[in-house]
Amino acid sequence: MNVRFEPAAKLAGALTPPADKSISHRAALLGAMASEPVRIHNYLHAADTNSTLQAVHDLGALVEVHDGEIVMRGTGLRDAHEPEGTIDVGNCGTLLRLLPGWLAAQDGRRFSLDGDESIRRRPVDRVAIPLRLMGAELAETEGRFVPLTISGKRLHSISYELPVASAQVKSCVLLAGLTADGTTTVGEPSLSRDHTERMLLRAGVSIHRHGRHVTVTNTDELVLDEVVVPGDPSSAAFMITAGVLIAGSRLLIKDVSVNWTRTGFLRILRRMQGIVIGEFEEEPGELCGQEPTSDLDVAAGALEGTVVTPEEVPAAIDELPLVALLGCFAEGETIVRGAQELRVKESDRITTVVQGLRGLGADIEATDDGFVVRGSGGLPGGVIDAHGDHRLAMMGAVAGLASREGVQVNGMDCAAVSYPGFERDIRGLLR
Ligand code: S3P
User: Fold this and answer.
1) Is the pTM for the entire model greater than 0.90?
2) What separation in Å is there between the alpha carbon of 26 and the centre of ligand 1?
């Protein structure tokens, strides 16, 4: 579907963003691994998180979907059923990387995972490597892609240093550590989102963080009872960007997760002089089971360029396309470094963001691990292709509202991967 977004006069009003995608996936997966029924409030109903619900159903969890709530009865940690066919992860990288951590330990059972065209280009060797060190048996396609076959085995614990910060790989190893003999430790170069750790702590697991390392001790069961999913800061970031860029705008974004590992974008935006007021979580210290939330007040203003360093990347990874867009409107240069992970997202986001914004008139160049944008006082407009990437589609829509002549987004429908009501919500804020 090709959709046009005309320049907006301004945005105003209040919006509650959709439920957090990362936390929804984890709630469904841990719900399936739990021994007692779990109630999940405000689960995200989008293409990606529906893939997770279908997967846990195929693995033997009972899933009842009610208005505003899901009730799930899992199989327990060690009793996932062997499904009849292949588990379809759809477009979902998080499901692809987390699920093997659970399935690799299902002794004596076999599972195969496959997905759409985009997922077939996304590497799975990053989880296969540590899982093999734990004694898992896996067979990838061409050594690093799906279809992936997993033959469940008894696992043993490891200490593993991630070469690149990744919440998906960290979570996979932690989930495998739940059933491995002994104590499993994962270290990462800088802290990535910690929703798995928080939810495991709430589920009664012995899990600790010391600096950049997390240690989990094996357990017999997870007891979770209830999860409340907060608003997704990555979805809210599109509205926040529109509110900051379009003169005269004033927005109230309600009930957003302000977990420190997810608010890197807000810290970068504030450094660019963007006006976002809220109660963000302080530096991450001791691990806690809560997911903090806040309302955010957003207002438009003049922006300055900035440099995003490699250490800042994990906490802002999904919002970096928006940093590129903001850079087009800022005074001076905006540089992102150390973000080579963008190349293995739903599209190669360094290439697709740079080509997409150039097509709208931006002065932007790709580097191996990021991009350099020279602020040019805004964007004329044009046509952008989403390349099947939800975040690119929504970035294009915001670019259109903030542009001088409007933008046509080709392939807008893929926004439904994380934010099915995006177009309705953003148009509802136009004044
Ligand atoms: C996610 C982690 C991130 C992020 C993805 C969701 C998660 O990936 O890009 O959209 O839910 O764990 P990496 O941490 O692997 O980079």
Assistant:
1) yes
2) 12
